[in-house]
Amino acid sequence: MAAPNILAILFSIAVSAIAIGILCYPFFVNWQRDRLMRQPFPRAWLNIVQNNLAIYICLSPEQQKQLQGYIQVFLKEKQFIGCLGLQITEEIKVTIAAIACLLLFGDRKTFFPNLQSILVYPTAYIVNEMVMNSYVVEERRVARLGESWTRDQLVLSWEQVQQDILNWHDGHNVVLHEFAHQLDQEDGKAEGVPILPRAMDYAAWAKVMTAEYLQLRDRLETDKKTIIDSYGATNPAEFFAVATETFFEKPKQLNQKHQDLYELLQRYYHLDPLQWQD
Ligand SMILES: [Zn+2]
Hints:
Strand content: 5-15%
Order of helices and strands: HHHEHEEEEEHHHHHH
Radius of gyration: 22 Å
Strand order of the largest sheet: 1-2-6-5
Number of helices: 10
Number of strands: 6
CATH class of the domain at 191-278: Alpha Beta
Largest sheet: 4 strands, mixed
CATH architecture of the domain at 191-278: 3-Layer(aba) Sandwich
Bound molecules: zinc ion
Distance between the termini: 82 Å
């Protein structure tokens, strides 16, 4: 009865090979990413980054090198899809990648793992949205500038991205906003709490974020001025995305009025935009 034994051996070899493949896959991905990050950064891409990312010049040479590496991996792994006739150009891809990859400093090498494709519309796009209105569900058409879905797609308006490039210090940036949602959703939940490096960090995160979120809601209810955009008061997930925009674009004001929040985001993003002020 040799045949069953051979089958059993072949079966166990196949199972072992699959198990080894599964175990080795993350190492292979990391090896491939490290290789990509060391590749020379194309001159044409560098011109785009220098032209479209105002704060690039403020990064240290080491940070610039790191960002270039992140962009190389991002562009290799993510697919761009032009919508309503928009032709995806190098400028569109490199610009979006450069802004998004600002969120990856600090050894956050997961590269937005849930995200596969970025859909880019030429301008604001119209979606049908279901809204609850006095116990009646109504469908209405609304214009959107960007959105990040828990599944594998993110949508952006190129016109809005271009406006954000020109107005870096206005506190609004659709790419930073939508990719902050991606970080938040990495664990499958959109609740304003991204994956943090250490278990003990969650308590500090909850303390600062909850206090700041409630303070924003309070100030809006009493018609007081706020540095953080009122959209952040929608829910904790939006608060994290909007606070991220403020951190990168209005660091001085955020640090002055919300130092705990600034320092929390500084630790999380491993960047100090206060140093970028001219
Ligand atoms: Zn949002």
